[in-house]
Amino acid sequence: MRWPLRSRKHVEPATPESTLRLEAANAAAAAFAPGTAAVPRRRRLERVERKRASKRRFAIRTTQAINTLMRVALPTIVASVLGLLYFDNVSLYIRSLLDVGAIGMLMADEAQFVQNFLTVIGLLFSILAGNAYSALYEQQEAIYFALFQEVSEAKSLLEQTTLVCQGRPFYQAALHYIRLYVKRDLRQLDVPPAQLLSSKPMDDPLESIMYITSVGVPSVVYETVKNLRQARGYRLGAMQRKFPALGIGLLYLLAMIELLAFPLLGAGSAGSASILTLQSILFAFLCGAHVLVLRIIQELWQASGGVFNVDEVLQQMVFGLEEELELRSRASGLPPVSPLSASLPPSSIRADGLTPWDPVADRGTGRMQQPPPQQSEIDELRAELRDAIARAEAAEAASAASGARGLSAPQIMRRELSSQPALASQPTGGPALGTEQVAAHHASGVGVAAEQPAEHSAAAAESTWLGLPPAQDGESAEERRRRLARLISKRRRVSLLGRMRLGMMRAVQAIGS
């Protein structure tokens, strides 16, 4: 018996077993073709990112809408309700204070004094309010242009930093400084621009980026940083308040004077309760319109917080920039900067975002030193330099008194250095003692090698210069050398004063040798 052949168009019904077999086959195919599995994963990540972005936009818009309703809509409603409730009472109270002749004059008003008064006050209010609105709107437009330019320059800096620093140990530090710039500068709409511009240079992330990417001369990112600083200056100049707070107060005063004239007209025409009711409704709309115009002008005058400001657009641009920073930081493969260091000043973070620079542990790794020190450390270095100069003068005076009048100070220090074996021969990679250490050693009363052992003389000189207690019992020479190397490297950070001191020491050593 021959079975009939199946048609090619025949499709087996879907069963749980066939579905499982199909899923297993798809998984096996995806294992042999990684690209096919990466596409759905990428799409899922894109959907997750879109959902996050939409949630963030919704949260920003909700916050701005609530702030605008509280600062614009609520005062408008309150002013309208107060005008509706108290217009008739105020009109009747003014009518009770006037006599019959005054009421007749108000009803006739042949000279139309009250109408002319209202016309002049209304014209003044319209002119000032219109000019204020126009000026503040132009300021908002300038802020938009400046923000778009600054964010574009910040993205250019991010791309150029990636091209220059990618694969280097300080790449994470450069990304961290850009993140600090976005967080502490670009997002700070509620901080006065003059205060942002007057910040210390050591707290400037852009200067830190220039520092870690430059060796001797400015790096290739100098032009981008310069353009970013110019865009930042335009943004801060556009955000500076040019319309004074006194102008806002004068607008409120003119609006109040104009509104107070209407109950006077109502007192002259208060013939019946129905007329006062109609006038109360119209006066309520008039009060609401005046307050609405004033609150919109004040919203434009504010720096941030409402739908009339640049908060929403700025948050969207900054969100994209921060997302790109995060993606580049993850793709670099380097250890990220510690979250605890996000609130610390840039000078407390090492170039690769880990622990402070150690010249012994980091020898040959290519790691750079820290950013410029704080003001207290600079003052400490200055005091130390003055102390070293005083000790050098004391050493020169003591040597001159001992009969070495024909020698200069560098030669005396060189002779003193060569007279101590432990000071003259330092281990390779250790802290080379310069003029300051020798001067401290000479001024501390350590004389000839015969009076004290050379090792104790060197320890006394270094301890005097560094402000350390003498070496402890059981401490090896290698441990003590590493400790002194850390302390010396901490005080010799690459700054203007540190470079001057290091250059002076090397020059004196070269002259003495």
UniProtKB/TrEMBL annotation:
Region (Disordered), start-end ranges: 439-479
Alphabetized UniProt keyword annotations: Membrane, Transmembrane, Transmembrane helix
Top-level taxon of the source organism: Eukaryota
Composition-biased stretches (Low complexity): 439-462
Record-annotated membrane-spanning stretches: 65-86, 117-136, 245-267, 273-294
Protein name in UniProt: Uncharacterized protein
Organism name: Emiliania huxleyi (Coccolithophore)
